[in-house]
Design a protein that fits this description.
Layout: H1 3-9, H2 14-24, H3 29-36, H4 40-48, H5 55-65, H6 69-95, H7 104-109, H8 121-132, H9 142-147, H10 159-173, H11 183-194, H12 205-213, E1 217-221, E2 230-238, E3 241-246, H13 253-269, E4 276-279, H14 286-299, H15 302-310, H16 317-326, H17 331-340
Parallel strand pairs: 1-3
Antiparallel strand pairs: 2-3, 2-4
Helix pairs in contact: 1-6, 5-6, 11-12, 11-13, 13-14, 13-17
């Protein structure tokens, strides 16, 4: 028996109780109409569950049957709730069609809030409603609307999976209190974060979180979900609070550091109403290029970097290491930039890159 069938067994109209009382008291519906002053048609509709028992009707039934009005009010309330519950179950069953696009199993493995392990499609929909804080998976949220036009050149890209990943970040950010977003503080603390880049990103994650929290920014690190192809995201959750999310896409430490400063650049330089998403293989635009430039220069200024490559010092490992020490940066970040710019091959000096 389905959940809907089981519930329908317990959906009993208050009129059933009235009918029983009429029989016990040897009364007809016309008798009840006369005693309460309610017309017979309304009495009949109440018995059939078509008309509700109002507060006024409940008081009148109290006098006729010597049963408190609260009993009738509660009976009516429970009945109406049951009717709505039936409709809700029907809508949940209808929404099971959305599960094909959502990586529920992976989310459950990670023990995300509300996403309990289950094979039951019905339970999955209920859990997802709670996860997204919506009454229906068909409802839009502001975040969902902002993602609607995001595109990737990867055919496997899933907009739904990305939305789940971002929602996870919002839930985590809401578990703590933050001061108001402070742009000047962000500019100041970005320099302090830069001082940490001689270390692996994940080793300094807690320190980075503290520095960004002082600026009113929640930093959430969460491995990417299948088919999201995202390195990082930044946006204002409210006018007073921002969020940066970083994934482990690429599994390289230099990518994590670059992504962090790329997202910081968006919060400093660009519209506070947009959601900035660093998608793999997405087409670059002026805004993304500007964020790239900021990240490159805060890690290694163009002037210093150009001097290094123009002197052809990048062909030897010891030169890369010395350059890194001189500029307070990890060798892996230098190697990553040299590889991306095409000065060395993707297979060169990878021993200097920290893998995650």
């Amino acid at each position: 028996m389905s959940k809907l069938d089981r519930l329908n067994e317990y959906v009993i109209a208050p009129g059933e109780t009235i009918l029983e009382l009429l029989e016990v008291n040897s009364m007809t519906q016309l008798d009840l109409a006369d005693k309460t002053g309610i017309n017979k048609k309304t009495i009949n509709e109440i018995i059939k569950g078509k008309a509700p028992i109002t507060t006024s009707t409940a008081l009148k039934l109290e006098y006729v049957f010597n049963i408190p009005a609260s009993f009738w009010n509660n009976l009516e309330s429970s009945y109406r709730e049951s009717l709505e519950r039936v409709k809700d179950i029907e809508s949940i069953i209808e929404e099971e069609k959305y599960l094909d696009e959502i990586p529920y199993t992976e989310m459950a493995k990670r023990n995300w809030d509300w996403i309990e392990k289950t094979r039951d499609a019905f339970e999955k929909v209920v859990n997802l409603r709670k996860f997204f804080s919506v009454a229906s998976l068909e409802f839009n949220t502001e975040l969902k609307r902002k993602l609607a036009f995001r595109k990737s050149n990867n055919d496997k890209f899933s907009y739904e999976a990305l939305y789940c990943w971002l929602r996870y970040g919002e839930i985590q950010s809401n578990k703590d209190e933050y001061p108001k977003f402070n742009m000047e503080k962000l500019k100041e603390n970005s320099k302090k974060i830069r001082e940490l880049v001689t270390n692996p990103f994940l080793e300094k994650l807690d320190e980075i979180k503290i520095l960004l929290k002082e600026c009113g920014i929640a930093l959430i690190y969460e491995p990417h979900l299948p088919n999201t192809y995202v390195n990082g995201v930044s946006y204002k959750i409210t006018s007073d609070k921002a969020i940066i999310m970083i994934s482990d896409r690429g599994k390289k430490d230099d990518i994590l550091w670059f992504t962090l400063f790329h997202e910081i650049a968006h919060l400093i330089k660009h519209s506070k109403k947009e959601v900035f998403i660093d998608l793999e293989d997405a087409e670059d635009n002026d805004i993304e290029l500007e964020a790239d430039e900021y990240a490159r220069n805060i890690l290694i200024s163009d002037n210093i970097y150009k001097k290094f490559v123009n002197n052809n010092l990048f062909y030897k490992e010891e030169n890369i290491i010395k350059f890194s020490l001189d500029n307070n940066i990890s060798p892996g970040i230098v190697v990553g930039r040299l590889q991306k710019d095409g000065y060395i091959g993707w297979n060169q000096f990878n021993n200097l890159i920290t893998r995650i």
